[in-house]
Write a structure and sequence with these properties.
It is a single chain. The protein is mostly beta strands. The chain contains two helices and nine strands. It has helices at residues 43-48, 128-135; strands at residues 8-13, 16-21, 35-40, 51-58, 62-69, 74-76, 84-89, 98-107, 113-124. The strands form two sheets. It has a five-stranded antiparallel beta sheet, with no helix packed on it. The protein is globular, with a radius of gyration of 15 Å. The termini are far apart.
Length: 142
């Protein structure tokens, strides 16, 4: 699969579907914005999941790890694509434009890995108008 640069639904393999969204589906992915990442897992993963460890690596930003607890997860038992687990990637984790690789490791309450997936590279563009109006207005220096 090529580098993904627009929000929408994507198939990783025969059994794994995920979506990424910032504003509306089909919009270009932009750096410096919160993104909702959601993967459509089997019902058993949905019931067992307790936390997620995310490894995020970008061209310009290096590698970071994000730990998301169950109370922060966006769990949806029924949707058009089955049970899903989502989370918000905060804008501060995506401040640089370029390609990002994302690995997701799902764990149960005992700390055992119950599922893992590697999301195809996501490419975020730079939107100077957004940065000027939202970040610089609040004292952030690029």
């Amino acid at each position: 699969m090529n580098c993904i640069s627009k929000s929408g639904f994507y198939q990783i393999d025969a059994s794994t579907l995920f979506s990424i969204q910032q504003t509306e589906f089909g919009a270009e992915l932009l750096s410096g914005r919160d993104s909702i990442l959601r993967f459509y897992a089997g019902d058993w993963i949905f019931r067992e999941i307790d936390n997620i460890l995310i490894r995020l690596s970008g061209d310009s930003s290096g590698e970071s790890q994000i730990h998301i607890h169950k109370y922060e997860l966006l769990l949806q038992e029924i949707s058009g694509h089955g049970a899903s687990v989502g989370f918000i990637l905060k804008a501060l984790n995506l401040i640089h434009s370029g390609a990002y690789a994302i690995q997701v490791c799902c764990k149960n309450a005992k700390g055992l890995v119950i599922a893992s997936l590697e999301i195809p590279q996501l490419n975020f563009s730079h939107d100077i108008d957004y940065w000027t109006n939202c970040w610089l207005a609040h004292g952030m220096v690029i």
